[in-house]
Structures are given as structure tokens and as C-alpha cells.
Amino acid sequence: MLPLIGIAGTVYMIINISTDPAERLMIWLVTGITFLILFVYSVIWIKFKMKIPVFKSVPLEKVMAMENEMYYIIRKRRKLCR
Questions:
Q1: How many whole angstroms separate alpha carbon 36 and alpha carbon 26?
Q2: Tens digit of pLDDT for each residue in 63-81?
Q3: How many domains are there within the chain?
Q4: DSSP-assigned letters across all residues of 1-20
Q5: Are residues 17 and 31 in the same domain?
Q6: What's the domain range around 27?
Q7: Dihedral over alpha carbons 42, 65, 67, 55 (to 10 degrees)
Q8: Global pTM value
Q9: Does residue 66 sit in helix, strand or coil?
Q10: Whether residue 23 is found in the same domain as residue 5
């Protein structure tokens, strides 16, 4: 229940970030552009650097394997990443 209250509070703060409508719009615009840039960067990174499909779920075993430093060494030897 507490996380839902926290989420609701965050949404309330985002909606009521400023009393001036022009300032509020500018803050939302800058935030939206920042999120868009981060989204594009992450898609490019996942697709071309990690060479993993972007919107495909990853099995838990593979995620756990990524924690091991040998995972990236083996991927580099097999030329699966740069």
C-alpha cells in the first residue's frame, strides 16, 4: 500500500510542478525531450552494442549469467559484441 501512496504523490508533484503554466510546460518539455533521448540511446545500445532484441524478454538465467565477468569475455571471443 505504501508504494501506491508514493506513486500517487509523485504523480501529483509532476502534475502540479509549478503554478505558472508556461513554466510547467517548459519543465515537461525538457523532461520529455530528455526521456526521448535516453530512450533512443538505450535502444541503440541494446540493439547494436549488446546485440540483443530490444523488446524481447530475457530469461532469468541469462540475466544472472551477465553478472559473471566471463560472460562478456566469451561474448567478445565469439564476436557477439564489440
A1: 15
A2: 788 788 888 788 788 877 6
A3: 2
A4: -HHHHHHHHHHHHHHTS-SS
A5: yes
A6: 1-49
A7: 20
A8: 0.63
A9: helix
A10: yes
